[in-house]
Design goal:
Two copies of one chain form a homodimer. By secondary structure, chain A is of the alpha+beta class. Chain A has two domains: about 140 residues, Jelly Rolls (Sandwich), CATH 2.60.120; about 90 residues, Winged helix-like DNA-binding domain superfamily/Winged helix DNA-binding domain (Arc Repressor Mutant, subunit A, Orthogonal Bundle), CATH 1.10.10. Helix content of chain A is about 40%, strand content about 20%. The first copy, chain A, is built from eight helices and eleven strands. Chain A has a four-stranded antiparallel β-sheet with strand order 1-8-3-6, with helices on one face. In chain A, strand 4 and strand 5 form a beta hairpin. In chain A, helix 5 packs across helix 8. The first copy, chain A, is globular. The interface between A and B is large, with 52 and 52 residues. Chain A binds a DNA duplex (30 and 30 nucleotides) through helix 7. Chains A, B: It holds the Pfam family cNMP_binding. Chains A, B: This is Crp/Fnr family transcriptional regulator. Chains A, B: GO terms for molecular function: DNA binding; DNA-binding transcription factor activity.
Amino acid sequence: MDNDVDNSCIVKHFKSYATLDEKDQQLLLSLEEGPRAWPKNTILWHQNDQSDCFYTLSKGWACSFRELKDGTRQVLDIYVPGDIVGLREFSFQKRITSVIMLNDAELCAFPRHHLDHIFSSSLMLCNIMFMITSRDQAILLERLVNLGRRSAREKLAHFLVEISYRLQRTNARVEDHLSLPLSQSVLGDALGLSAVHVSRTFQEFRREGLLKTGNSHLELLDIRGLEAVAGFDAFYLEPPISDSRS
Amino acid sequence: MDNDVDNSCIVKHFKSYATLDEKDQQLLLSLEEGPRAWPKNTILWHQNDQSDCFYTLSKGWACSFRELKDGTRQVLDIYVPGDIVGLREFSFQKRITSVIMLNDAELCAFPRHHLDHIFSSSLMLCNIMFMITSRDQAILLERLVNLGRRSAREKLAHFLVEISYRLQRTNARVEDHLSLPLSQSVLGDALGLSAVHVSRTFQEFRREGLLKTGNSHLELLDIRGLEAVAGFDAFYLEPPISDSRS
DNA sequence: GACAAGAGATAACCTAGGTTATAGGGGCGT
DNA sequence: ACGCCCCTATAACCTAGGTTATCTCTTGTC
């Protein structure tokens, strides 16, 4: 059962980019380790740790961050179920970020040296790897725009809408309403805002009926409304070109 | 002469990551087009253009940016001689950024579909491709930290020091003093600052003997001093692991 | 079930950096 | 040689968002 192709985190993820033939699926499957539980707030790795594998997040949420000397923190990315964590650090011997669980989560490890098998035996998988990192970069670029040129209201709205789009990709059941396990300080640290100001801004959003706030947890009530606040354009999340080069 | 491996932009770039055997060098060489001149301020491509190749910047400087509806601009990256431009957009059919020349420049095109040859015939080249995108991502991550959590002084100092490191990589002759073709408004747009505030901050830096300002052009006089202002740590530029997996 | 620790709301106050305006200088096209 | 435009400097003024401080409400722990 556990060896079933349909249960594999990484096979599922790769399939969302292009169709895989049986051989590729088996190859991926054989190289991935089974899922393991990681409770909320545990550190998956620290900056400077040896970097020898990446993970697929089969359940739960996580985020990567960097701590500065002055004690502040910059959250670099948020990972939702189905995401690949750590591909970024691929060619560094040591991790260049830290990753923490936002949630009770479950991860499947994928030893990095197994990538050799992939590169040498499947052009398709190799291409998909590039698609994944490419989409990843596109998200980072948009985050730069967000941090550099938008107001607090826009930053928050944009970030939340982006996450809702990313959730839709692998977790089908999202319409116009969904809830995220994100505290206000995580959001502040992701967007270069203070937690206090996130709270202030959420008060406005609440009054406008855009969302509800809970405890380390918030509920988006009106995603279209948030898109309007952010001036959101999803072009940068568009599914990358698929098998045109296969 | 033009077909000489030692003159090829892309061969030079790839060699800075790992040693290439003769076959790999010839392969790269055969797939790259000769250099072509691009005068200052010309647009290499616009957002939404068809994306069918990337380039190596053999001479001159360029930057990628995105324009927002409100007329502001976010500069996403600055390219120095030797850099690869456009690898980011690899798996998007349309460009997701625009690129403009900061300088009279010279570029070699590399048609994207040629990557198939590379992936299928050389494990080494495939690995180097990943190293390049990986380092690229590391730079973006650090830029996020810069935009999210640092003061204007720190942002500017950090950015300038980073560029001086990147210059050293492919352009050997940089000691403690070098000059960059960057206007204050480009810097502002890259760092989420107003051009006015860049000017104010440069006035301080000038008084402190850190740099000299010119016309669309500035000269770093004391790189160590700037590193101190920024609290700079070059770990994220460290040469990625090389042929450990070859 | 008590307590400590984290998460959020809200208010008062403050400052880094944005905005607008003016003016001078250099490079470039004709 | 003229004129234009872009780049830069600098000053006066203003505001978005940071900081600090309290209080409350959860939640996880022993």
